[in-house]
Write a structure and sequence with these properties.
single chain; alpha/beta; three-stranded antiparallel sheet; 11 helices
């Protein structure tokens, strides 16, 4: 049996949560780094202190059954809550609280954010004991003594009508609760994701207009976005397999470029016929940071995921100019 140690991972200065205690075992002895830039220093620090092994989730995906801690750089998409949902304690190196469709699975017991290497330390005996005993006092819920499923039920026609009404009432209550829960999730997603994103885009547009920075960038990009050849070059640059996973998180790069190109089209600097090929050019990096996570969701074998990640990244790079050309052809005559 290996000499593993418990590690205390604290939140960063502007992070969310308090701290989590992570402890490897013989079965779960790996820290997975899903950050798109090799093994992140935070993941390496956790591995060194705990006596476990750090693994690059892009180049060497492993089964989630072997992972006791995940280090991600999620800006508010699926990764933040995916690993907590699967019972894996998660460290987000970016600031901010839980976000995305699986944010409800992130709690102070399994998720921290904004973490730097200085926030990772060996856990003392008290912390390790608290983590080991967490949930030990939870008692399974049992039915009261003497309770019977059939107790109190009436017989005959009255009992049948009562049963029908009960079934009908429960069915209506289930449907109403289903729609209510869906509406609540929609509102939460709007508040947590869409509205902040709209504010971010508004801030970017205002900043660029007020400082003139947008015009400076527009002048620099006009030679690229104003022609099909330039868009192909732009797509190839941001689609480089080493860069695309780093440019993907949070869709910040796509949003910024889309705002700039949209403003240029609106001002008449670029023809509207370039809108579709420009969209295909900047969307090359979409989900490139999510490929190993998608493989995990699909329960792919580690060897399959290991081959799939570079294959997908290189295929995006190869198909980028083709997509731009197809978008240009499809846009002919639309404006």
């Amino acid at each position: 049996m290996s000499n593993y140690r418990s590690v205390k991972v604290n939140k960063g200065t502007n992070g969310w949560g308090k701290f989590i205690i992570v402890t490897p075992t013989d079965e779960k002895d790996k820290v997975i780094s899903v950050t798109g830039g090799g093994i992140h220093p935070v993941a390496q620090r956790i591995a060194e202190l705990s006596g476990s092994k750090a693994v690059d989730g892009f180049r060497n995906p492993v089964s989630n059954n072997e992972v006791f801690c995940a280090v991600v750089d999620c800006g508010g998409t699926l990764r933040a809550g995916l690993y907590p949902k699967q019972g894996i304690k998660t460290v987000n190196i970016l600031d901010g609280g839980p976000a995305g469709p699986m944010a409800d699975f992130c709690t102070e017991d399994n998720f921290v954010s904004g973490t730097k290497t200085v926030n990772v330390e060996l856990a003392d005996a008290k912390d390790a004991a608290s983590a080991a005993d967490a949930g030990a006092h939870e008692e399974p819920q049992e039915k009261s003594a003497g309770y019977s499923e059939d107790s109190g039920k009436k017989k005959g026609v009255t009992g049948f009508l009562t049963l029908v009404m009960e079934k009908l009432g429960r069915g209506i209550g289930y449907v109403v609760n289903l729609f209510f829960d869906g509406a609540r999730n929609a509102v939460n997603m709007m508040i947590r994701n869409i509205i902040p994103f709209m504010i971010f885009i508004s801030f970017i547009i205002g900043l660029m207009n007020a400082t003139g920075f947008g015009q400076w960038i527009a002048d620099g990009l006009s030679g690229l976005v104003g022609s099909v050849g330039g868009l192909i070059v732009l797509a190839l640059i941001i689609g480089i397999p080493v860069l695309s996973p780093l440019l993907g998180p949070g869709a910040v790069v796509q949003s910024t470029l889309g705002t700039i190109i949209g403003a240029m089209i609106g001002s008449g600097q670029v023809s509207p016929s370039m809108a579709l090929p420009a969209l295909f050019a900047i969307s090359v990096v979409d989900a490139c940071d999510f490929i190993p996570v998608a493989a995990a969701i699909g329960e792919a074998e580690p060897e399959t995921a290991r081959i799939a990640v570079p294959s997908m990244l290189f295929s995006r790079f190869i198909t980028a100019p083709i997509c731009v050309l197809l978008g240009w052809v499809a846009g002919i005559g639309l404006f």
